[in-house]
Amino acid sequence: MIIKQLAVPISSNQSFQMRRDYFPKHQSIWLYHEELELVYVKKGSGTLFIGDRIMNFHPGILVLIPSQIPHYWLFDEINQKDEMEDPIDCVVVHFKKDFGIENFLNAPELSNIKALLENSFRGRYLDDYLAIPAQNIIEECLHAQGLMKLFKLLEILSCIHEANAEDLIGENYSILNQSEDQYRMNNLMNYLRENYKHKIMLQDLAKVAGMTENSFCRYFKQKTGKTPVQFINELRISHACFQLKNNKMSLKEICYDSGFNNFVSFHKSFKATTGMTPNQFRN
Asked: Residues 179-191, buried b or exposed e (16+ Cβ, 10 A)?
């Protein structure tokens, strides 16, 4: 899995690009791009890795991803019975901060959208109930043409500005340098994604990064805003949340399936991360 810069196709008769995805082939790579990205998940669930955050997502959410922030959508595994159906339904929009039009956002009528985009460096996340006002407009935008398509997108952004959206990434997150950091962090994230259910030693991570243990700890905290232990625990808790919502496994089975060695540490980490116990979350 290679982190890469996405070159968004440019059309001579459009100021932004919009598409609908029914399979996660475009999302299942680590990437970043100059454009802001707006994603509406109509169908599908899983885990979103973005900046210094790991979070579960579900149908109905709306996400505004900042420029140059690496992100990766890990969709939940699809049941065999659903293989013939479209596993996801996501609307994805890419656009530049000024839509490629000089002074476009200086129009007084667009002051709220200008404020939203100028403060979008930490991203925005709207849960399903907050995204409701924008959901129908997104469908209308998909089918609109010409100037009306742009008007609909501006209306969606206005809804986001008016909603009580939460930030996606933390204040201490450091944007990756666009060269060696990408390769190193991609290798680390790939290793963590494939091994978080097993015991991970600090020296193993340092070896993957090609650094000493002390240097690696400082580097990882700088790039993610978290210690390696915190990051791994959040990844494990994210998996546990999915199991609690979708399976009838016992709490102890979920504890060990998520990579924890004992139930006490699982219970403590789960409550610290989610604000509730595993039982409360399931209920």
From this structure: eebbebbbbbbbb
